[in-house]
Write a structure and sequence with these properties.
heteropentamer, A mainly alpha, B mainly alpha, C mainly alpha, D mainly alpha, E mainly alpha, A: two-stranded antiparallel ribbon, about 75% helix, D: mainly alpha, Four Helix Bundle (Hemerythrin (Met), subunit A), 2 domains, 6 helices, about 0% strand
Chain lengths: ~600, ~110, ~500, ~170, ~475
């Protein structure tokens, strides 16, 4: 087993599994589940093994499109630190979530469809991770979108799910539009698509015209905005919660949405060459992380709260990319976030199963005793998310905040504030769900979930708490702390964490219903409504006008009018044919005279 | 002495009169007479030309006169056939009036 | 050289099949046999072509002088590009015949017309002589008229009239263009043999050909439903029976662009570049304007018709940019779009045959009663909107790369600040890239409205997709996937075409 | 002298020609047709075309006009029953005729030798019957045959068309 | 191989006619159809004879020229006459209904004989090279057509058509004669050769007089070939006349008219200023004819009348060819088009006659569902309509192709543009027939269509020729002048 072959096995086993499930899956549930989990497990094992190996000297690569010297698009893998870490994260969490799904989807229909989708997703995600050139990444980028579409739309009979999946795909396409243009811009200038060549010297071309590079980078960043649900393209992520909870946890929390950040990390040297582009990235990230946190504070759906927190955390990562000198800072947070956010979602899933698919936190309450194990796991995740000191989130997030404060003071302090909000809404969720009194029949008779779901919780709870400790961090990342951080920063963060938790406790300790109502936040800052309005009135309205025009103007001018004129002409001419000899003789004579004049008088 | 122009103008006038007969009268017989007038007008100018442009032998172009002869013959034949048709028409429709012949139109 | 070309077989098989059907052999069986045989022959031909040396000129050439005084000869020949188109034609024909449901009245004429259309397409793609290139295409006109008029649905008569007259008009303009192409050649060397004409063009012996190019563009444009000459297409495809729509949208419509790539690109390149701005405006109209028109369609068949019009825009873009990448991309898209639209029309035909309506308002939730149908439709739909893995993506990609490369963006500085400006091709490319989003919008909407959401009780008893149709569509999809995963299969064929002179 | 005769005959011809057009009763039209033909014949004579003149009188004044009168009697159309005169027809006809005459005048005046008088013939007293017959049977033999066939066809036609009962 | 003098052809034809007359007169009780068969046989013999004649290159000596153009059109006339006779046999019952006669077959004899004499006239026209000759032959044809058109005395339509044709035909004869007069007056010649010889010496001043003459001759010939604005008789006469006569008119007399037209204008093209004016006039005539024929045909519902309009339309295309005389290809284009026109028009009439006989009317709607009622006929009609519309793989397309090629060579772009529009219109009204045959259901009480074997053979041959020549015109092009 050479290190240059292993990636290919890791990459294509899931695809094989997906195809296999497509054919045999419908005949046996265990078989389809087994195929999917098997492929994930193989990938996981190989990734860890690969992680322990040194980087291979050269990596295999196959020509996919090759047109003379004009264009070469190979399919090849890059094995470096970045991709290896990402491999580990993706495959590990995937394995856990796949396993968890057995329990969660037991009762659901479309079992094989679900696992086929998961396997396909794993394939595409790994493709992104391993891609060694823009086009390959773009290909798998789109495939990830597809698998997300399939999985979100799992409950396709539900209109909401169907719409959500459609929206997710289309919004991602909008992002990809920019991404593709960015790729074209870079390629048109440098003539190459390989990350390697671009990052090492390929961008020297732009010395003459940094503005062009900036535009290109911003366009590429659009891909991230779409995939990582940054504002203003974040709307699809909360809606994607219509999918099964494991999907939300794997795709829409841990891995897929992080692909955008991973891509930024992959092209970090290029970005670094275009400071203005980095500023754009920073602003988008900062605003996203704050705005999403605001929205999260007023949601009632357990999964939506987590979704907004995801958006907010992704905002942190993007901000980190823009402000830290090395992408490892963001990758570090991506790493920890993957664990605790996945954990949180799985907990939420277990709660939802316990509650017979009731997701409104105000219909829960007092689940602490009914599902204690879930409760503990949830708390662990919540602590990590809200950056409780000495949990994983604490290390990674504070690092980003520190850099942000140093590089972009305003955004930095905004993200500091966000930290407080995070603590608040996270524990709002915990308290509302697990404390207080049961506020619903389901809540009264909720029961703990089966082991197959709890084991993954356990497996995730541990890293969620400890994955951030420096000794672990050193294994995976080489991060650097900024010098002269404002000494107020860390105290402020502690204060904000405890403040947030305390505020949550006072408000939601045992509240029967939400004591505060801030419609502006509850309605997601009205951004979704704005989009709905635009789609409904601008896009569809305009389209309707155009199609009307097509029927009644273009068609009229190009087809109807000419044909009608010809027909009418014929109809009129017929009336010269009135059947009267004398009239004919007259026309005849007129013709004669006309002809004579033509010949003689001209 | 009458000149070529005299004859040509007379024949032209006759031709026009014949044309007028065709264009203005609505009785097929009269129209037919008008047609005969036109043919004869042509004859007149033919003969005039032949007389005014004698050949190298200093004689009138007798080819033209032969043509006139043919024209007269043809005209006679035409009259015969035409009148036969008109008679048949009259038998069928009791009319020789052009305005009654408009079943075929448009 | 003048031995009987194997291509003649490809043309004769469907015609003879049609003849047999008309004299009374079993219509469906004969048609199936004929089309399958043709598919087989075409594959054999392609295989043997790849084995041949020197793939930069035509192979399987045979020529029979027909009007020597005007340099018209019945000359057959094929290179990589024609072979790709021939493969497309053979595939779609087989699929169309397989999908077709024998009508209760006049089945003979039904299948015969299908075969005639196919023969027309094949003959056009296999002809080197422009005169026959044109004549073969016209062979399909009347069968289309009959198919739409007799077995069509909806307002079939209006559709048939409009399409037929319009196509007749367009092809007549084209004929004038071809005559013009003949007349701008130097006296005494005039011919309709494409190879000779290209030779003359390379030798710079042609007179000013701008007006000829405009005629060709108008003629071909009408045939390919170039904006604003597109209105015949959606109506015709909406009311045509599925196999007819498949053949026409999948194969015949490609004739126009194939002709532009074959004739205009090598013979009148300066005219092409000269009028590229005009063409760019029109094709952006195809992509954006028609794209949004497509978005607001309420019926599946109309939507598909408009979408096929829209996709022509990409191919025109590839042609307009006129470099190796873009033209290769255009050629790939010809193939890709042919397959995907054929599959989609086949499915919509099946659907109409089950539900009797294609109005989105009445459909919904069909993934439950017929999952396989939904799956296939999904494949076809995603292939149509250029998802990676399908050959359509390769085509779009190459077109974008090719049309964007048009000159590395001008670097320079204007009044101090560094600036760059995009040339018109690049602007058009950006519009076209937005078209990708539009197509996702309408395709996914259609898919969601038909297959997702709650199922109405009246559709409870829907049958799954029928066997033959299933086989045919799966075949189309497999081809799209294979060529999508391994585009080199297609690319090396196209790269060997003789258009790169 | 010649001029006077010319004017006499031509006015005679034209007047009766007008009569053909403007008489209401077919019979008088036919009669004036004959008269104008006679005038025409005499014009032929002034052009030294005696044979043609004679033929003209024989054929027209003899055969054709008899035929006309016979038919008129047979169909018994005395006077055309009064129908409203179509002004449009008259106006249109007037315009056409006017145009035609204008063209004609334009042509005639443009003729270089329009106003030349009759050239003297090589030998005046030559009997033109011989000449015409010569031309007719020598040069114009073929057309003559064709005319023969034409007459045959005409005969058949008249028989077929006017016989009461075909057998 | 033994050669015959060209003159023998017409003589033989006339003899055939006279023999038939005799037979008609003496064998009263025989089945009149045998006359038609006899005529067909005789004319076939003559047709065979034409291959034993060596054409001499056109030298317009005297009255009669048998260059290969003339020879070709003699064959043309013979063929169209033969086909007319075939049609007449098919059509005989209708004629019997419409002529007064107690006995069966009364009056049919002349109906079969007259076309033969017309044929002789057409053949003479084909080689006429002298205005006198032209006049006589033309009149022979015209007068015999007067009779044939008005032949069905008990049908008022036929009589009305006959009267219209008579009056307008005589009118055009008047103009023809007057025109000849003026040409003679200016050149002192009646022979085309003589004219072309002295044309160079005609003084500038008398050119307008010459043009006057030419114009009037053009009018008369325009009447014969149904060129607008001298075409008004066409639809009425075609509709009213007995169908075989209609076919004969639309092919035979039109073709003869065109050959005469080409012969007559040829000498005048030598003079530049006359040539320019002449070509301009021809272009305008062509344009008007195209527009009138095609546009006015679109609303038609009666197939016979529609074919009348379509014959105007095709006259338009032919005139486009004539107007392009400058290019060497034009003559060939016109001749080929006439050939194509013969094939497709007669095919259409061969289908029309039996169908109309069965349905009792010749409206397009009488063809409804023919595609299922009688496949063969429908197929034949399909082929003929496609050829008339000018669809590839039919001879009609090749014809149009040549015509427009010539026109574009001469850069008559305006004319070509008009042609573009009219071709589209043409598709519309020809497809109307196809639509009736294949889209429309057959009426429930549609009687079966019976076709005589002779007609069947003729139709099959024509259809085959249309396709074969349409696909592989080479052999035909080789026999063209």
């Amino acid at each position: 087993m050479s290190t240059s072959v292993a990636p290919w096995i890791i990459l294509f086993t899931p695809l094989a599994a997906a195809v296999g499930i497509l054919f045999v899956g419908r005949y046996s549930k265990p078989l389809s589940a087994g195929l999917a989990i098997g492929s994930a497990a193989i990938g996981c094992a190989l990734s860890w093994w690969l992680f322990c190996q040194p980087d291979p000297a050269e990596s295999l690569s196959f020509p996919w499109i090759q047109i003379g010297t004009d264009l070469q698009i190979p399919i090849g893998v890059t094995i470096d630190h970045l991709s290896k870490v990402m491999l580990v994260v993706v495959t590990t969490i995937a394995t856990l979530v796949f396993t968890y799904s057995i329990g969660y989807m037991k009762a659901e229909e479309g079992y094989w469809r679900y696992f086929a989708g998961l396997a396909l997703f794993l394939f595409s995600m790994l493709g992104i991770v391993l891609a060694d050139n823009f086009m390959m990444m773009f290909i798998f980028w789109e495939l990830v979108g597809l698998s997300s579409y399939i999985l979100i739309g799992h409950y396709f009979k539900r209109d909401s799910a169907a719409d959500a999946s459609k929206q997710a795909f289309i919004v991602n396409r909008v992002g990809d539009f920019g991404f593709l243009l960015g790729i074209l811009f870079l390629w048109a200038a440098t003539g190459t698509l390989m990350f390697g060549e671009l990052t090492t010297g390929g961008i020297a071309v732009f010395a003459a015209n940094p503005f062009y590079l900036t535009v290109a980078c911003v366009l590429v960043f659009c891909g991230t905005v779409g995939k990582s649900a940054q504002m203003p393209l974040h709307v699809w992520l909360p809606n994607s919660m219509e999918g099964p909870t494991p999907v939300s946890s794997l795709l829409h929390a841990a891995t897929m949405v992080a692909a955008g950040v991973y891509m930024l990390a992959r092209i970090f040297p290029i970005l670094a060459a275009a400071p203005p582009a980095l500023d754009v990235v920073a602003w988008v990230g900062g605003i996203t992380c704050f705005g999403a946190a605001l929205m999260a504070t007023q949601q009632d759906d357990i999964k939506r709260i987590l979704a907004y927190s995801t958006i907010s955390q992704l905002g942190y990562m993007v901000l980190g990319i823009a402000s830290a000198p090395t992408p490892d800072v963001s990758m570090f947070h991506l790493f920890t976030h993957a664990f605790f956010k996945c954990l949180l979602f799985l907990c939420a899933g277990s709660v939802i199963v316990g509650m017979h698919h009731e997701q409104n936190i105000w219909k829960m309450g007092a689940l602490k005793n009914k599902m204690p194990f879930t409760f503990l796991a949830m708390v662990a995740g919540a602590l990590a998310l809200s950056g409780c000191p000495f949990t994983s989130g604490y290390f990674s997030k504070d690092l980003i905040i520190a850099w942000a404060v140093v590089r972009h003071p305003f955004l930095g302090w905004l993200s500091v504030a966000t930290a407080g909000l995070t603590a608040f809404y996270t524990f709002r969720l915990v308290f509302a769900v697990f404390l207080g009194k049961p506020r619903d029949e389901h809540a009264k008779h909720a029961t703990e979930s089966p082991a197959v779901m709890l084991v993954p919780l356990a497996c995730l709870a541990l890293p969620a708490l400890v994955a951030g400790f420096p000794f672990i961090e050193k294994i995976f990342f080489h991060v650097a702390d900024p010098e002269e951080v404002p000494f107020l920063l860390h105290p402020a963060l502690y204060a904000l964490f405890f403040g947030g938790v305390a505020l949550a406790w006072t408000l939601y300790g045992n509240a029967a219903k939400d004591p505060v109502r801030i419609p502006f936040f509850a309605n997601r800052l009205y951004i979704d409504d704005l989009y709905d309005w635009m789609v409904k009135h601008i896009q569809d309205g305009g389209a309707a006008v155009l199609s009307w025009a097509d029927r009644w103007i273009v068609d009229l001018l190009v087809v109807q009018v000419p044909s009608k004129i010809a027909w009418a002409g014929g109809f009129v001419l017929r009336f010269l044919q009135i059947g009267n000899i004398q009239a004919y003789a007259f026309f005849f004579g007129a013709g004669v005279v006309g002809l004579l004049y033509l010949l003689i008088f001209r | 002495m009458p000149t070529l122009a005299h004859y040509l103008l007379v024949s032209g006038g006759l031709f026009s009169i014949g044309l007028a007969g065709v264009l203005l009268r609505r009785n097929i017989l009269i129209i037919f007479m008008g047609l005969e007038l036109m043919l004869n007008a042509a004859n007149l100018s033919l003969v005039a030309f032949s007389r005014f442009h004698p050949g190298h032998d200093g004689l009138p172009g007798y080819n033209a006169q032969v043509l006139v002869f043919f024209i007269i013959t043809v005209a006679a034949a035409e009259v015969a056939v035409g009148l036969a048709i008109i008679v048949a028409l009259f038998r069928a429709k009791q009319t020789t009036h052009v305005e009654d012949l408009d079943t075929l139109k448009f | 050289m003048s031995a009987i070309s194997p291509l003649l077989v490809l043309i004769l098989v469907p015609i003879l099949g049609a003849a047999f059907i008309l004299v009374g052999s079993n219509a469906r069986a004969t048609a199936l046999v004929a089309s399958a045989a043709n598919l087989f022959f075409t594959l054999v031909l392609a295989a043997s072509y790849l084995g041949r040396p020197g793939t930069d000129h035509y192979h399987f050439v045979s020529t029979v002088p027909v009007i020597p005084s005007m340099g018209i000869a019945f000359t057959l020949g094929a290179d990589g590009l024609s072979l790709v188109m021939l493969l497309l034609a053979a595939l779609v024909t087989s699929a169309a015949v397989a999908v077709a449901r024998t009508p209760d009245k006049n089945a003979a004429w039904f299948y015969a017309s299908l075969l005639f259309i196919s023969a027309g397409g094949i003959g056009a793609f296999a002809s080197i002589d422009l005169f026959f290139f044109y004549m073969f295409h016209e062979l399909a006109l009347i069968p289309t008229f009959l198919l739409i008029g007799i077995w069509g649905s909806g307002d079939r008569q209006a559709a048939a009239w409009k399409a037929t007259i319009y196509l007749a008009l367009g092809s007549f303009v084209l004929l004038l263009g071809l005559i013009g192409l003949y007349l701008i050649q130097p006296e005494g060397m005039r011919t309709y043999d494409l190879r000779a004409i290209v030779g003359l063009a390379d030798a710079g012996l042609l007179a000013d050909g701008n007006w000829v190019y405009l005629l060709l563009l108008a003629g071909f444009g009408i045939l390919v439903s170039l904006f604003p000459f597109h209105t015949w297409a959606p109506q015709a495809y909406a009311s045509a029976p599925a196999p007819a729509a498949m053949l026409h949208a999948g194969v015949l419509k490609k004739f126009g662009l194939y002709g532009l790539i074959r004739i205009a690109a090598p013979v009148l390149p300066e005219a092409v570049t000269r009028y590229s701005n005009l063409l760019l405006v029109l094709l952006v109209g195809n992509i954006l304007y028609v794209g949004y028109v497509t978005v607001s369609q309420r019926k599946l068949d109309w939507m598909l018709g408009y979408s096929s019009v829209m996709h022509m825009g990409y191919i025109f873009l590839g042609f307009a940019a006129l470099n190796v990448l873009s033209v290769t991309g255009a050629s790939v898209m010809l193939f890709a779009h042919g397959l995907s639209i054929a599959a989609l029309f086949a499915l919509s035909g099946e659907l109409r045959e089950r539900t009797g309506t294609l109005d989105f308002a009445e459909l919904g939730g069909f993934a439950k009663p017929m999952p396989a149908f939904g799956l296939l439709f999904g494949f076809a739909a995603f292939a149509a909107i250029g998802l990676p893995g399908f050959v359509g993506f390769v085509g779009e990609l190459l077109v974008f790369f090719g049309s964007f490369v048009g000159g590395v963006p001008l670097m320079g500085s204007m009044d101090g600040k560094e600036l760059f400006q995009l040339n018109n091709f690049q602007v058009a490319t950006i519009c076209a890239a937005w078209g990708v989003v539009i197509s996702a919008v309408y395709m996914l909407r259609a898919y969601r409205r038909i297959f997702f959401g709650p199922l109405d009780d009246r559709w409870a008893g829907l049958r799954e997709i029928s066997g033959p149709a299933r086989v045919a569509i799966v075949a189309l999809i497999v081809v799209m996937l294979v060529t999508g995963f391994f585009p080199q299969l297609l690319l090396q064929l196209i790269e060997s075409a003789s258009i790169w002179s | 002298m010649q001029l006077a005769l010319f004017w006499l005959f031509s006015i005679f011809t034209l007047l009766f020609g007008l009569g053909v057009v403007f008489f209401r009763s077919p019979v008088s039209s036919a009669m004036s047709l004959v008269m104008s033909f006679v005038g025409l014949a005499s014009l032929f004579v002034t052009l030294d075309a005696f044979f043609i003149g004679v033929v003209q009188v024989l054929v027209y004044a003899g055969a054709v006009m008899v035929l006309f009168l016979f038919i008129i009697m047979l169909l018994d159309l005395r006077t055309e029953e009064r129908r409203p005169v179509k002004l449009a027809a008259w106006a249109g006809g007037g315009i056409v005729i006017g145009g035609f005459i204008a063209a004609l005048l334009r042509v005639v005046v443009s003729l270089p030798d329009a106003w030349q008088t009759k050239p003297v013939l090589a030998n005046p007293g030559l009997n033109d019957v011989a000449q015409v017959g010569f031309a007719l049977f020598r040069n114009f033999n073929l057309p003559f045959q064709i005319i023969g066939v034409l007459l045959l066809v005409a005969t058949i036609g008249v028989v077929v068309l006017s016989r009461r009962e075909l057998k | 191989m033994v050669m015959i003098s060209a003159l023998a052809l017409e003589i033989c034809v006339v003899c055939v006619g006279i023999l038939l007359l005799m037979a008609d007169a003496f064998y009263v009780h025989a089945d009149k159809r045998s006359l038609a068969y006899g005529g067909i046989f005789g004319l076939l013999m003559v047709f065979a004879m034409t291959f034993f004649i060596r054409p001499v290159p056109a030298d317009y000596t005297g009255f009669y020229t048998n260059d290969d153009l003339g020879l070709l059109f003699k064959r043309f006339a013979l063929l169209s006459t033969i086909l007319t006779l075939v049609l007449s046999v098919e059509y005989a019952p209708t004629v019997e209904r419409f002529i007064p006669g107690s006995k069966p077959g009364a009056g049919l004899g002349e109906f079969f004989v007259l076309p033969v004499f017309t044929c002789a006239g057409l053949m003479w026209m084909a080689s006429a090279s002298d205005f006198v000759m032209i006049f006589c032959a033309l009149e022979l044809v015209t007068i015999s057509f007067y009779i044939q058109v008005a032949y069905m005395r008990k049908s008022t339509a036929s009589l009305e058509a006959g009267t219209k044709y008579l009056i307008l035909g005589a009118l055009s004869t008047g103009f023809l004669v007057y025109g000849i007069t003026w040409i003679f007056g200016m050149t002192g010649q009646t022979g085309l050769r003589g004219v072309s010889m002295v044309l160079g010496f005609v003084p500038q001043a008398s050119q307008s007089a010459l043009l006057f003459g030419i114009g009037l001759v053009l009018v008369a010939l325009g009447f014969k070939v149904a060129a607008a604005p001298f075409q008004f008789w066409v639809p009425d006469v075609y509709q009213g006349a007995p169908t075989p006569v209609t076919a004969f008119l639309s092919v035979g007399s039109k073709a003869a008219g065109f050959v005469v037209l080409m012969r007559v204008i040829e000498p005048f093209l030598a003079v530049p200023e006359i040539e320019t004016k002449l070509v301009a006039a021809l272009q305008i005539l062509a344009g008007l004819t195209l527009v009138y024929g095609n546009l006015a045909a679109m609303p038609q519902t009666n197939l016979k009348r529609l074919l009348g309009y379509s014959s105007i339309a095709h006259a338009g295309y032919l005139l486009v060819g004539v107007a392009s005389v400058g290019s060497p290809a034009a003559g060939r284009a016109v001749v080929f088009y006439l050939l194509a026109y013969l094939l497709m028009t007669f095919l259409a009439f061969l289908v029309l006659v039996p169908v109309a006989k069965a349905a009792g009317g010749d409206d397009i709607s009488d063809f409804n569902g023919l595609g299922r009622r009688s496949r063969g006929l429908a197929l034949a009609m399909l082929i003929s309509m496609l050829s008339l519309a000018g669809l590839p793989f039919t001879v009609g397309f090749i014809g149009k192709f040549f015509i427009f090629e010539a026109a574009m060579r001469e850069q008559h772009y305006l004319l070509v543009a008009v042609g573009l529009v009219t071709v589209a219109c043409g598709f519309y009204y020809y497809l109307k027939v196809i639509r009736a045959m294949y889209w429309q259901p057959a009426p429930a009480d549609a009687p079966p269509v019976v076709v005589s074997p002779l007609t069947r053979i003729a139709a099959a041959v024509l259809a085959a020729l249309i396709l074969i020549v349409g696909i592989f015109p080479k052999p035909v092009l080789q026999i063209l002048p």
